[in-house]
User: What shape does this take?
Amino acid sequence: MTVTVEDRAAPDPGVRVAPARQRRRWKLPSFALAIPAWAWLFAFFVAPVALVVWFSFGYKPGIFGTHANDVLSLDRYAEALSPTFFSTFQNTLWVGVVGTLICLVIAIPFSYWLAFKAPVSRRGILLAMVMIPFWTNFLVRTIGWQIILAPSGLLSTALQSIGVLDQPLEILFTRTAVLIGVVYNYIPLMILPMFVAFDRVSLPMREASKDLGAGRWSTFINVTLPLAKPGIIVGILLVYIPLMGDYITATVLGGAKGNMAGQMVANQFQTAQNWALGSAMAVVLVLTILTTVAIAALVSWLATWPLRSRQRLVLGDKS
Amino acid sequence: MNRLSLTDISLKVWAVIVFGFLFAPIVIIIIYSFNEGRLLVAWNEFGFGSFATIVTKPAITAAVLVSIQTGFIASLIATALGTMAGVALARRAGKWAPWFLILLVLVTVTPEIVDAVSLLPWMVFLGQDVGLSMFDNGIVRLVVGHSLFSTAVVAYIVRSRLIGIDESLEEAAADLYAPPFRRFTQITLPLVMPAVLAAGLLSFTLSLDNTIVSAFVQVSGTTPWPVYVLSAVRSGLRPEIAAVSTIMLLLTLGALALVAYVLRRAGDSATDIAKTVGGG
Assistant: This one.
């Protein structure tokens, strides 16, 4: 996110006596063109989110009210973290972490293959094939899984006919079904940045490693993977963050009662009409995501600390 | 040599399995849209009945029209706002730029459900407490909700495209006394046009597919098609849901093929296109 053209393009307040050309170039303040987008996002993103944070300190005044803020307290947070709802946050975290790990395990060999082994001439088509599911409506592909996983559905019938199962498959509306669904729904977000990262690792680097006697595996672990690390981290974040807030997959594959925090928040706004509690849950959800990402970053930083000094010698020149 | 090819083969097998996984539900939806049965999940026999049902059910056609209308307006707004912001970020970045980028990143990483539950009370507040009755209009609500994420995406795409283009043409125009506005419309805009078009089409597909925000801000009477499908998930799925999904899939893929074509013409490699379409 470094803005390299910044210095060149920034208006210099001291150029009052500059040549005419300079004055004409920067008549408007530099951020003028960004003002409409700024205002739009402020009015319809920052303000509403701020309102929700404000609601979260209030309470539900009665059966017909949705929120009131004349008495401020942290009670809604206590309520959101009470055992009834806490287990849902726990479950969300479990699905989030396990789902992201499964995506990682599936995506690493696949992206590696796509970047290094797949025929270059067909790469455009193959990438397009990864993107088609990504751009198919989220809800529609999840319904596709409902058809596949239903007790009277395709997979169940197939497994029964070849004799693996002797009764219908009872997987729909369980946590396993939600897990399959989220892995499916978010994995393109892991594959694409990972592919781009692998693709950037230049062949000479890998060849040099092999020339110096490293085997394939050792080259992969010591050269390719560390160089592709930024892309892998982006992929993890792109999968983990939306997965934690998932609402649709859990609704379609997890059944009506639901087990994900996103559904719980939605229920408070749509069914229970308790906007104060729903707001507090939404804030807790966002804080959970931020905290876990921070913890993961810290752990991986600490875990690779002994390795890093060694690798910097090997790879430090690569800019 | 033997060990080498064994790894290659297993990688290839893995890739085939992953592609199978990626396409399984989509193929299933397309096949089941030709289901003549009463329920979507239970296959009965092949036929085109579900496609005929779409035409006869006004709710479905209305929902699709709402979606297309919203997608059109939302993508226009997002493209206009995002392009200007992207140009400002690439060409006139000052001290404000990092803050603005943080705002854009926040918009993109906030879970959609949080956006959705914040927009609902906000629309009610603007419409009823402040008295701006336009926010009681279903299309306005949907357009606003869909344009937020897209604005950020357009800004990213335009910014990264413009950073990759040398500024010398614009400087030359300035040397030849072109006023800023003409320089923008005659030099900068044509240069980023491929990115703007691609980003605009992406916003259109994003809006077409938006489900969560739509489900919260929609007003009954202007239901976009994903929300119609979502309510069908609760009340019982019928084959025409798969049929309308197949049609919308074709529409989305058409828009994406157009994106790829526009970027190809502009000289992008397959990898660049993947980066653009993958959201930067």
User: Anything to note?
Assistant: Chain A touches chain B through 106 residues (CB under 8 Å). The radius of gyration of chain A is 25 Å. The CA atoms of residues 11 and 84 of chain A lie 56 Å apart. Confidence is low (pLDDT under 50) at residues 1-26, 313-319 of chain A.
